[in-house]
Design a protein that fits this description.
30% helix
Length: 83
C-alpha cells in the first residue's frame, strides 16, 4: 500500500470542511433575499457555530457569567419599560 503525503494525512486527521461545502447564512436581507455569506465557523469542532454569518448573529454567544446574565436581564426590563 503506498504511503500518503503528510499534507493529506493532516487533512484527514483534522477533518477540515472545504469552503465550498460550508453552509450559507440564509437570513433574509433587507431586499427579501437569503444572505449568501458563509456561516460563522468553529475551527475546533469543524462545524458552523449557529448557522449564521457574522452580520446576522454568528458572533454573539450571549452573556456567559451570572453577572452578565443579570445585567442583560436588567437592560431588557429597562428597554421594555420604554414601550
Amino acid at each position: 500500500m503506498p504511503e500518503l503525503p503528510t499534507s493529506v494525512l493532516r487533512l484527514k486527521r483534522r477533518r477540515i470542511t472545504p469552503l465550498g461545502k460550508r453552509p450559507r447564512c440564509g437570513a433574509l436581507t433587507r431586499w427579501g433575499k437569503p444572505c449568501q455569506e458563509r456561516a460563522a465557523w468553529d475551527e475546533e469542532r469543524d462545524a458552523p457555530r449557529n448557522g449564521r454569518c457574522d452580520a446576522h448573529g454568528g458572533r454573539s454567544t450571549g452573556p456567559k457569567t451570572t453577572l452578565g446574565r443579570q445585567r442583560a436581564l436588567r437592560n431588557l426590563r429597562h428597554y421594555r419599560e420604554g414601550w
